[in-house]
Amino acid sequence: MGCVRSAVGVCVLAMDLPESSKPALPPPYQPKPWLRWSAVALAAAGWYLASHLLLVSLGGEAAGRLTQALCGGDDDSCTAVLTSPQAYLRLGPNLEAPKIPVSALGMGYFALLALWYLFVGPPSHPRRAWHLLPGLVVLFGAWQSLAYLAIMKYELGRWCAGCIAVHAINGALVVVTIVAYPWRRPTPPPVPHPATRLALAAAVAGLFALTAHPLVAYTATLLSVLRDRTATYAAVLNDPEYILWDFHRQPAALIPPYEDEVYAGSPAAPNTVVVFGDFQCTACRQAHETFLKVAARYPDDVRFIFRHYPQDPECNSNPRFRGGGHPVACRAARAAEAACVVGGRDAYLAMRKKLWDNQNSLPSRPYAAQSAKERALFEEWAAEIGLDRPTFAAAMDSPAVAARIQADLELAGRLGLQAMPVVYVNGKRLRNWSKLETWDAILSAPAGAAP
Question: CA-to-CA distance for 79 and 57, rounded, in angstroms?
Answer without folding.
Answer: 7
